[in-house]
Write the structure tokens for this entry.
Amino acid sequence: MSSSSKDRLVSHPHQSLWRHLASVDEVSQRALAAKVLHPDLFGTHDVESLRRLLVYFHDFGKGTDFFQWMITEVARRENPDYKNLDAAYVAQFGERASAEVASIGRDGGSLRGHSQLGAFVSQTAITDGSNRLLSAIVYEVIARHHGNLRNFEGDVERGTEDFTELLDKQWAHMNHTDYRAILKKTGFIYADNLDEVQQQATKRFFARVYDQLEENETLLPYLQAVFLFSLLLAGDKGDLMLPERSLVGRGRRCDERLIDRYKTQEFGTSISGRMNAWREEAYQRVADNLAMHSGRGFYSITLPTGMGKTLTAYNAAILLQNNLADRWREDNPNCVPRIIYCLPFTSVIDQNAAILEDILSLDPGMKGELAKHHYLADWTEHKADHDAILSYSEKEYLVEGWEYTLTVTTFVQLLETIISNRNRKLRKFHNLANAVVVLDEVQSIPPKYFNVVSKVLVALHEYLNTRFIFVTATQPFLMNPADGHEVLELTDPTRDYTRRAFERMNRIDLDCRLWQDGPEEVEEQVELFKSAIRNESQSSFLFILNLVRESQQVYRALAAEEEPGVEYLYLSSAILPIRRKEIIERIKEESLPGVRQVVVSTQVVEAGVDIDLDVVYRAFAPLDSINQSAGRCNRNMRKGRRGSVRLFKSKNAEKIYDVVLLNRTQLTLRDQLRTESERADYRAGILPEGRFYELNQSYMRQMREAVADNNDTSREILEDLYALRFERANERFKLIRKDYTTYGVFIDDADTLPTATLRLNGKERQVNSNEIYQMMRDILCNDEWGRWKKKQELRLIRPALLQYVVQFPEQYLPEDLRAEAETKPFIRLHKQGGDCDYSRCYHLSTGYFKSDDQNPTHSF
């Protein structure tokens, strides 16, 4: 073709390459325009210029004849009217193409790929190549934008010597004329011949970069790489997933009085009772201290359980959001910080999000500005200023990209985003810039990762202006003082009030006598439990075991007693999510007159599950877990008497907990009991709640010294991050590790199991287990839908579907079912007899069991 046209080249079956690049430009520009970054993040290099460079060269290779042959063939099939395309170009391309081009275009392979060529050519468009490392980062971001980031190491082929044939052929078959027409108004130019491309990016060039990284001891290159990667992904995916571009990059200020208004609505204006007065005092102190110290990067809210930390933390986050928006107004009036609220478990996210939804309902302008992001969550249907129900792709993009003003998510989502090489996880990384991140129950982060997490959070604050609020009853000394940022305690920067808040508590005692001198075997412990239930006839009980099988054993033994006036309840990961929700709600309800609850559980009740019982028995565990268990005991002082938390021995604790943490807990408890024995009011083996602050401080200090400071895991991950070894860092940093095989099992019993809520197209309805299973089958068997359509439809019903799926450890699933389970996300068991009858290995009350175990018969 003698003339040029920016409209000819095709990117997608319904879109020209020029339009795609322009759209990626618009979306990524909107994402960046709402941010205030520290000038040191990219130094003398303009981040806006880097963004546009990535946009206009990431799909450079789509201009080759090989790619164009393939995409025009698809366009003729899927877009026969050639809508939004140059019809003549598309219709005639195949006829003009050579046999070689047609063969390669049809068969695929690296010559049809487009990322690598653009990565090389981008190097010739960089106007300032003085920063070799940043040039290499640009190369990597473009080369990997359809996959995951790879290690910056010499054994990965990058130099042009390894791509000579690829470059020669792609360059010779590149439509430079039309691509330069696309670039005409961008200001970008690239090399006129292949020799210049090869001179700009040689293997020697990359080797020098690797050598430079080996000496690097800063996280700046890592942040540069993942931020640019995230920004490009946000634009690239946003073009296809977001018809309405204005949904990107836009946050809203929350009303600073929003939590106050909610409290007035829910609790009135008068404050009665000692606990409520203490809660209000702590709430006001946090707000006042934040106003006086709003320029800090790291804050903590340390209060005993039951002191209203959740509302206090919401209020602190909203106040900080508004303060930061004011602070950055001169730099960027469009910058409104997002609030990202993180919790350790998916089981408590719905509970917290429900409170937030009620709070936001008081401000009509905040409708559609809250999202839940975890695998069991429904996607938000609306977004502010967008009246229509969001499409599937819009919901996916906005929720998984953290585009809402408020996002409630998990620690795993947050931490495996900030330390990752994964395309899908890193897409939302750029939205951590300027965010207010709340980590509720922060002690749940494994101590072996403390140092690497500390350094990464400091880097996020210093370069991306991110702020952090740590919330817990047991501050874990997460941040390393050596990293240069002190954590400001918002209840009182001097921590005097914080100590007093714990010391004045008089709700519970920690009784260590069974841990010191009691039996170790479960069978003997059960007899003590039975005796306590009989003798303390006015008390409700919670028994927390370390292993599922131990908890099942205890539950069966206690329930078999059928003590009059007792309701027996069981709770663990062995039972269905839909059942867990039902049981938690039942525990939270007031018991009928003359009926008391006996609950047997595992650690699933520890963090954020708002239940309250009179006596808690806890198997020995690390002290932070013991603290969380204590938070389920007499938290609201409803009966005017002290509750009792009774620690007992656990010979299997080392199977699930770090032995160093267990040893430190043992030493700390013994030291505190020894100190307690010198007090006049000493009761043998018992620690009153007023000593918990001192106990926790001692434990956390020892834990940091023993586990965090002398730990190779953090050091090795940091070394990988410094050297941009993305894959190795991602492999080493795993918050959830399973050392055993599990299989997903769908339990179908529509007559017995509760119904689940299904939300589709802005409406919700109740479905039973059989209905949701059949919906899944109908989707999979629909021959008119392709793979992607089926995937979308399955994702929409997944939150309801997974309410009936439980993960079976391998040994609990009968052998004849394992072969099928290995090939499917889950298998279905029902109650109709035969090999797939769930009663062979599962009971609705207690979950999975081995076929040779005693078959449990007690149900609710």
In short: The first strand starts at residue 10 and ends at 12. The two ends are 78 Å apart (CA to CA).
